Every structure is written in C-alpha cells, then in structure tokens.
Amino acid sequence: MLKTLDRYIIGQFLKTFFLILALIMSIAVVFDISEKTEDFAKTSASLHEIVVDYYLNFIIYYSNLFSGLLIFIAVLLFTSKLAGRSEVIAALSSGVSFPRFVRPFFITATILTALSLYVNIFLLPYANKTRLAFEKAHIWSTYNLEEKNVLREIAPGEIVYFEAVDMPRKTGYRFSLEKWENGQLRRKLMSDRAVYDSVAGHWQVFDYMIRDIPPEPGFRQLDQGLDQHAMPQGEVVQEEHLVRGTRLDTVIPLKPSDLGQRLEAAGALGRTEIAEFIRAEKARGGSTTAYYEVEQQQRTSYPFATYVFTLMGVGIASRKVRGGTGVHLVLGVLLCLLYIFTMKMTTVAATNSAFNPTLAVWMPNLIFGLIGVWIYWKAPK
Length: 381
What we know:
By secondary structure, the protein is α+β, with helices and mostly antiparallel strands. Helix content is about 60%, strand content about 15%.
C-alpha cells in the first residue's frame, strides 16, 4: 500500500502537471483562435465543427506533444517547493533514503507514460485524422509538390516517372511508364502530360507514344515471358513496335497522394497503417520514408522520455539552493532546450541523410537519461 509520503507526492505531481497543462492549453487555444479568426469567418464550418472537430482534437494533439516538457516543469516546480520548505531534508533526516523518496515520482511517471502511450498509439491518430481533415477543408491552401523528377515503383518492374507534378491540377508533365522484365526494358509509355481523373480514379495521358522493345540478341521470346537461353543461330530478331496517339486512359495503381502529401498526414495514420505505408513507400522509392519512420518511432520514444524528465527534474529540484525555484527553473529550461536541440538535430539527420531513424529518435533519451542518472547520483550529496 502507498504510504502518506507517496500519496502526497503523487497527488502534488499530478495536480501540478494537469494545472500547468490546462493553463498552457488555454493560452494555446486563445492564440490559435486569434490567428485563425479570419479563416473561421470565411469558412462554412459550423460552431460545432470548429469546437469538436478542430479544437477538441487540437487540445489532444498539443497536450500530448508538450506533455514531456510540462512534466519536467511540474516536477521542478513542486519539488523545488518541497526543497524550499525543507521537506526533502526532513524526509531524508527521518531515515527515508533518496531512492525511497524518488519512488512515488516514478510511480506517477509510469502512470503518465502509460497514458501517453495509449494516446499516441490508439487515440491520437484518429484525433489527428479529424483535425487535419478540418484544416484541409477550411484552413490550408492547396498542397504543392516541390520535388522534381519523381520516380515511383508501382509494381515489381513497373516504374512511373514525372518530371514535374502540379498537385492543384492533378497533372504530371513529361510522364513515362516503364516495364522491365529480367533486367530488360520491354515497354515504355511516354507522354507530354498526364491528368488524374478523380471521378474515374485513373490517369489520362495525352500526346503519347508506346514503345514495345523486343528481347536483346541472345534471348528468345516465349508466350509466358522471357527464357534466358541463347537464340538459335540465324533466328530473326523482332523489331521494335511504336504506337502513337492523342489520348489514352490508363489503369496505373497510383494516386496523386502517393506522389506526395503534407508531412502532417503521418500523424493521422494508425499503427498498422503507418507500418504498411512505410513498407509501400520503400517499395516504390518514396523520398519521405525516413520522416514516417521517425513518426512511427516517436510514438513510443517520446512517452518514455517522461522517465528521463522525471529523473532530471527530481535530481535538480530536490536540493535546497540559494535562489530557490528560480535557479531550478533556469537549469531546467536549459536542459529542455538542449534536449529539443538534440532531438531536432538527430531527426533532421534521419530525414535528410542516411542516419538510422530508430537511433535518431531514441538517442536523445539515451543521452539525457545518462545525464539524469548523473544528476540523480549527485543529488543526495
């Protein structure tokens, strides 16, 4: 059973955290309303949609996003207050060891970590899906794909190429579709322009040319594919076949969203959806795979940062120092900034270079976890 000290610390921890969370979210909502007032005035969205579809999910998203840092601030504030009133010294002087004093902090951290994991994995994707759908319909401007020379493998051996894509018009320019068999290019469809028909769900290509390429010398063509055997001497090699036209409907299994979409959409994918998206994105050679892998890993790593922040917070704030809470907050803010900087640096390295996304996401927790252990070890002294 929890003793009086445990219940007191757990209660103070949770009360301080949720009080700070409510205060920060209230400020965030007020600032967001002031920023989007003009957008809301122009939109056809009802008050119910603004409040429930947008702001309720807005609060869920940002509460979870800032939870780790707010937990750190909460630990600093109420532990510093305990130290300022000499309650920490009194507890330690009465025979309570420092590890025993820290135990209720980690009980609370476990509760908050479990809550954050549930929100990240199960609740947040659906909340983000509703929020982002509202923003797409009423706030965002049309998405533009900045990437040039877009390549996607839509099926084994079938590669789509666009020199440029106009997302608002759902139009790709300098389009080609290549079909490869056994390392040989067998067919190539080329077109000046390809337009996606949202109603029919397929691409229409204009001013096209289809080039059928026979097997290279040394191969012979069979009805069911290519047989890699030397051609009999004197066999005639089939010539290339060209077809030209002005318009052609295709059955390419590719949507404009497969070429590119806002990176925020990663947060709206469930656990199985994001795993499937990463697999498909790797298969077709997408350029955003690392970003989605970072998003996938952060759903687990960020909740566990609660333990890191709790360990550092208790170690810093449990010592009674001249300047009290102010000194503790300054040290805490510096550590927060360093953590954010490290996280940003590693995730940018993962999304813009070959740095492993899993290592990039978990490295800040490992580094600052070691810092927290050192602070914890020094705290009783």
